[in-house]
Design goal:
77% of the residues lie in helices and 0% in strands. Among the domains are: 126 residues, Tetratricopeptide repeat domain (Serine Threonine Protein Phosphatase 5, Tetratricopeptide repeat), CATH 1.25.40.10; 101 residues. The N and C termini lie far apart (50 Å). By secondary structure, the chain is mainly alpha-helical. It has 16 helices and no strands. The relative contact order is 0.08. The longest helix is centred in the N-terminal third of the chain and has 18 residues.
């Protein structure tokens, strides 16, 4: 069994905010209360409000504001001698670092967060930090190292009835299964995550679960209509909550579905839209993946294979720079699908980057 989803990152006087609260509203309330706490010299409350400012800013794509806010929250928490608040600030900083493609920094901050959470006796802070480490490893393609940690965190979440973490863990495991060709189990886990998220009123988790379901029914079943319908439902949830990053990934998945269906002109437009959104958000991983889809779409529409090969060379470098260990496999798969050879020097102009 499990209860309603809650948002432990909203603390202090903001603890009544919901996991489904509009991020614009969160940012406005947290900013107002942060200024009041700073005027009153209430450093612990300033740390709590600063964390909410950091998370709302990060999810809205205001990465510079998020960077300043989590650091200020950490300083305030340290001044208050509150290791749990320090843990949450470091978790926010590590999550932001991953979003910006700084994987090594993300690991350091999330490891610090886990240590501080344990020191402060906070099950939730420690759990979120470990989840962040697991997600970082999963994104980098290091499945062997983190699949067991995902399973451990899922078991812990089930034992506590913590719906939001159950949904996160199920989606992470499902994504690894999908990426290794275990489509049946992946779809079952995405569907379970969607059911839990819906009953627990976790709309963010539901949006990601619907996206995962759309991916599997597209790649496994070729059911383009159902996949696009699931993505439309998920996009509405993202828009209602101002989830800019989730919406950009939704648009990239829509482009993937269209590409698989041979609707390359439509796919090209969607990849271009997602690419612009990721650039606005300052999210290099999403940007690189959207660029990869765009290169493939342009190739299907008749682009010169030499230019396509040059773009794939540049994308390989970009993906490796982010720390995605399966970058070579992704690019090699694209080459095989498109029938293009490696560029002789690997250093030709990247025409899709501009």
């Amino acid at each position: 069994m499990y209860g309603k989803a809650f948002a432990p990152e909203y603390q202090g006087t903001l603890d009544s905010l919901s996991v489904n609260s509009s991020l614009a509203d969160v940012l406005a309330q947290a900013g107002t209360r942060l200024r009041a706490a700073e005027r009153a010299g209430a450093v612990r409350e300033a740390a709590h409000c600063g964390l909410a400012v950091a998370e709302a800013s990060r999810r809205l794509g205001n990465v510079d504001d998020a960077e300043r806010a989590w650091r200020a929250s950490y300083r305030a928490a340290r001044s208050a001698g509150d290791p749990t608040a320090m843990a949450w600030a470091a978790w926010s900083g590590g999550t932001l670092a991953r979003q910006r493609g700084a994987m090594a920094l993300a690991r350091r901050l999330l490891a610090l967060s886990a240590e501080l959470g344990e020191r402060g006796g906070s099950v939730h802070a420690r759990g979120y930090a470990l989840a962040g480490l697991a997600e970082t490893g999963r994104i980098q393609g290091d499945y062997e190292a983190v699949e067991a940690l995902h399973e451990q965190l899922l078991a812990e979440a089930r034992s506590r009835g913590e719906a939001r973490h159950m949904v996160w863990a199920l989606e992470g495991i499902a994504q690894m299964h999908r990426n290794t060709g275990r489509y049946g189990s992946a779809l079952a886990m995405f569907e379970e995550a969607a059911e839990i998220a819906a009953h627990a009123d976790d709309r963010r988790g539901l949006a990601w679960a619907l996206r995962g379901m759309a991916d599997v029914v597209s790649v496994r079943d070729g059911d383009t209509g159902r996949a696009l319908g699931l993505l439309t439902e998920a996009a509405a949830l993202c828009g209602a909550m101002d989830l800019a990053g989730a919406l950009a990934y939704n648009h990239k998945m829509r482009a993937n579905v269209l590409y698989r269906a041979g609707r390359w002109t439509e796919a090209r437009r969607m990849y271009e839209q997602a690419l612009a959104e990721f650039r606005e958000l300052g999210e290099p991983r999403g940007e690189a993946l959207a660029r990869l889809g765009l290169v493939k779409s342009l190739a299907r529409l008749g682009r010169d294979p030499v230019r396509t090969s040059a773009d794939l060379d540049a994308l390989h470098r970009a993906l490796e720079a982010i720390g995605l260990r399966h970058a070579r496999q992704m690019v090699d798969t694209a080459r095989a699908q498109l029938g293009v050879a490696t560029s002789p020097d690997g250093e030709t102009e990247d025409a899709v980057a501009a």
